[in-house]
Specification:
By secondary structure, the protein is α/β, with parallel strands linked by helices. It contains twelve helices and eleven strands. α2 packs across α10 and α4 runs parallel beside α12.
C-alpha cells in the first residue's frame, strides 16, 4: 500500500505542475475589503484591468467591506487555495487587527501568505476650506480653543486614521473625538458640509473636494509626501513626530496556494505596476508603486507589525 501511495504521488506530480504552469484557465477574483468606489477599490481596479490583459483571463474585483478589512480578508483566508481567489488590502489587516480585536475568525499570519507589495501610500488630515488654519500648528491652537472635542472621521474603528487621530491628542494637545465612517468619502462630505471638524482621507478621495474648494489638506501622514500632492508637507516636515509609519497596499493568497502560482502572480503584479500608464494612474491616486517578492513583503510585515502593535497598546484602542 505504501508503494502504491508513493507511485500515485509520483504520477500525480507532473499533472499538478502542468496545472500550475497552465494557470489561469478561468476568471480570477480579487477580494477588496473596502467599499466600492473608495480609494483602495479604485487602485485595485487599475491593477485588475492590467492583469486581465497580461493573464488572458478576466480578473474580477469583489468588494467585501466590513470590520476594518476582516470581512473580506476572512473570505480569502477560507477560500480554496487553488489560485483563483486573492486579497489586496492595506497593512491594517496584518499590522493592526491582531492587536485591536480580542477575537478574529482567522489568523492573518498563518491563513494568508504574502504575494507582493503593490504600493506605498499617504493619508491626509483634512479640514473645511474656510477653517481658520492652514498648518498643524494653527490646527492645534484652534482645537485647544474650541471648548469641546474636535471631531475627526476615519474609515473605521481601529483603522490607521483612527489610530493617527489618537496620536493627534498625544502629539498636539487638545481633545479629539473619533467618528467612524464606512469609507473616507462620506466623512469628507460631512467635513465639507460642516458636520465634522476634521477627517483622515486618501489623496484620491480628497482631491475632488479640494479642487471644488470645499475642504483643504493640512498635512500628510506616512513616510513621504503624496506623489499626487507633492506640495503638501508631511507631519515630520511640520515638526510633529510619530506619523511616519508605513502605509502600504499588498496582495495575499490563501495559505496552501501553490508556490508556482504565487510566484507567477507576483511577477505579473510587478510587470503591470511598472507599466507607465498603470504607474501614472497609481500616482494620480496618491500611491507610489513599489512591488516586491513574497519574501520582501514578509519582512516588511515582520518589521512593521510590532510597531503598530506597540502604538495600539499605548493608545488603549480595542475592538470587541
Amino acid at each position: 500500500m505504501k508503494r502504491r501511495a508513493i507511485l500515485a504521488a509520483t504520477l500525480a506530480a507532473p499533472f499538478a505542475a502542468r496545472a500550475e504552469t497552465a494557470w489561469p484557465t478561468r476568471p480570477i477574483r480579487i477580494v477588496v475589503p473596502f467599499n466600492p468606489g473608495g480609494a483602495i477599490d479604485a487602485l485595485v481596479r487599475v491593477i485588475a484591468d492590467a492583469l486581465t490583459v497580461r493573464l488572458g483571463q478576466q480578473v474580477v474585483v469583489d468588494p467585501k467591506p466590513g470590520a476594518n478589512t476582516i470581512v473580506g480578508a476572512d473570505i480569502v483566508a477560507k477560500a480554496p487555495p487553488d489560485g483563483y481567489t486573492f486579497l489586496i488590502t492595506t497593512n491594517s489587516t496584518h499590522t493592526n487587527n491582531p492587536s485591536l480585536y480580542a477575537r478574529m475568525p482567522f489568523d492573518p499570519a498563518k491563513d494568508l501568505i504574502p504575494v507582493s507589495l503593490v504600493s506605498l501610500g499617504t493619508i491626509l488630515i483634512v479640514a473645511r476650506a474656510d477653517a481658520p488654519f492652514d498648518d498643524l500648528k494653527g490646527m492645534a491652537a484652534w482645537v485647544k480653543g474650541l471648548g469641546r472635542p474636535a471631531t475627526y472621521g476615519s474609515w473605521g474603528i481601529g483603522s490607521s486614521g483612527h489610530l493617527y487621530g489618537l496620536m493627534l491628542e498625544k502629539s498636539l494637545g487638545g481633545s479629539y473625538s473619533h467618528v467612524p465612517y464606512r469609507g473616507d468619502v462620506p466623512a469628507l462630505q460631512d467635513v465639507a458640509n460642516g458636520g465634522l471638524d476634521l477627517t483622515w482621507a486618501s489623496p484620491v478621495s480628497a482631491k475632488t473636494q479640494i479642487a471644488a474648494g470645499k475642504v483643504k489638506a493640512i498635512a500628510a501622514a506616512g513616510t513621504k509626501r503624496s506623489a499626487s500632492m507633492p506640495e503638501l508637507g508631511t507631519f515630520a516636515e511640520q515638526l510633529v513626530a510619530g506619523f511616519d509609519l508605513s502605509l502600504f497596499v499588498a496582495a495575499y493568497a490563501p495559505a496552501g496556494t501553490p508556490p508556482a502560482i504565487v510566484d507567477r502572480l507576483q511577477r505579473e503584479i510587478a510587470a503591470v505596476i511598472a507599466e507607465p500608464a498603470v504607474a501614472e494612474k497609481l500616482i494620480a491616486q496618491g500611491q507610489t508603486p513599489v512591488g516586491s517578492t513574497p519574501g520582501e513583503l514578509a519582512r516588511v510585515l515582520s518589521r512593521e507589525t510590532p510597531i503598530w502593535a506597540d502604538l495600539i497598546q499605548q493608545s488603549g484602542a480595542k475592538v470587541e
